[in-house]
Specification:
By secondary structure, this protein is α+β, with helices and mostly antiparallel strands. Helix content is about 25%, strand content about 30%.
Length: about 260
C-alpha cells in the first residue's frame, strides 16, 4: 500500500523517453505492458546502441540501488505504447526493510547485478568477450563509492584489483615536490589499474575523486585470467591520453593510465 501510494503509473507512447542519461537515479521502473529499450553509447562508438530491452514485468533503472548520488547511465525509450510503474527507491527500501534485512539484501543484490551487467556491456574491453568471461567479471565485481577529494588508492599501494568507472570523474595524480600533479582524467567507461596486477607492482599513480564517484572493482585473481585469455582484445581497448583540463564529455575512447 505504501509503494502504491508513493509511486505512479505512467502511460507512454512509442518513442517517448522514460528517462535520459545523466538524470538523477532515484527511482525504479517496472514495465506493466509494452516494451522499453535501454540505449547508450558504447566506449569507442559514436552512435547509441540498444544495450538491453525490457518487456512486461522487467525492471529498469537499477543503478539507483548502487550509489547514493548516481545518475542514469543510459536512456530508456519506449519501443511501443507502454505502461510503466515508477517506484521511488527510498519508499521501496523502507517497505522491503519491514520484511527483513535478508530480503532487502537479496533484492538489492539482484538489482545491483543487473546494473553492473549494463555497465559492462557499455565498456569497450568487454564487448568482444565470451559470455562466460563476462559472467566471471560480473560475479566478482564489487561497487565502491569514493567521496570528493578522497583517494581510491595511492601511489605505492599494492595493486589488488582493476577498476571500471561507472559514474563521476577521477584524477590520476603523481607527486610533484609534495604537490599533486594531474596526469589524466578518468570518466564513465574507463578501465584503469590493471597494468600493475600481473607482478603485484606498487601503484604508479594516485587515483582521487574530483567529485563523488562510483567505480566497479574486479579482483586481481579474477581479472588476470580473463585478461590473459583475451589479451589482443584488451590491448585494443587501451588508449593513453593525458588531458590538460577535465574532459567536458565522453570522448568515445578509453582513457588508460599506465
Amino acid at each position: 500500500a505504501e509503494i502504491e501510494a508513493a509511486g505512479r503509473v505512467r502511460s507512454l507512447k512509442k518513442n517517448d523517453v522514460l528517462f535520459r542519461s545523466g538524470e538523477p537515479a532515484d527511482a525504479l521502473f517496472v514495465v506493466a505492458s509494452g516494451a522499453c529499450a535501454l540505449r547508450g553509447v558504447r566506449r569507442g562508438d559514436e552512435d547509441a546502441a540498444v544495450i538491453r530491452r525490457a518487456g512486461r514485468g522487467d525492471v529498469l533503472g537499477e543503478e539507483a540501488t548502487v550509489s547514493d548520488f548516481s545518475t542514469r547511465q543510459l536512456e530508456a525509450r519506449c519501443e511501443e505504447e507502454s505502461v510503466v510503474a515508477e517506484v521511488p527507491l527510498v519508499v521501496l527500501r523502507r517497505a522491503i526493510g519491514r520484511v527483513g534485512s535478508d530480503a532487502m539484501e537479496r533484492i538489492e543484490r539482484a538489482l545491483r547485478r543487473t546494473a553492473t551487467l549494463d555497465l559492462l556491456h557499455t565498456a569497450s574491453f568487454t564487448r568482444a568477450l565470451a559470455d562466460a568471461d563476462v559472467a566471471l567479471l560480473l560475479d566478482a565485481a564489487r561497487h565502491v563509492q569514493v567521496a570528493r577529494g578522497d583517494s581510491l588508492y595511492r601511489e605505492g599501494d599494492v595493486a589488488d584489483a582493476a577498476y571500471l568507472v561507472a559514474d563521476g570523474l577521477l584524477q590520476a595524480q603523481t607527486d610533484d615536490d609534495g604537490k599533486p600533479r594531474v596526469e589524466a582524467y578518468l570518466q564513465r567507461g574507463d578501465l584503469f589499474g590493471d597494468e600493475e596486477l600481473a607482478e603485484r607492482e606498487p601503484r604508479r599513480v594516485t587515483i582521487a575523486a574530483s567529485g563523488p564517484a562510483w567505480v566497479v572493482a574486479i579482483p586481481r585473481d579474477v581479472f588476470l585470467p580473463v585478461a590473459r585469455r583475451n589479451a589482443p582484445k584488451l590491448a585494443a581497448a587501451h588508449r593513453i591520453t593525458t588531458h590538460a583540463a577535465p574532459p567536458k564529455a565522453p570522448s568515445g575512447t578509453t582513457t588508460h593510465v599506465c
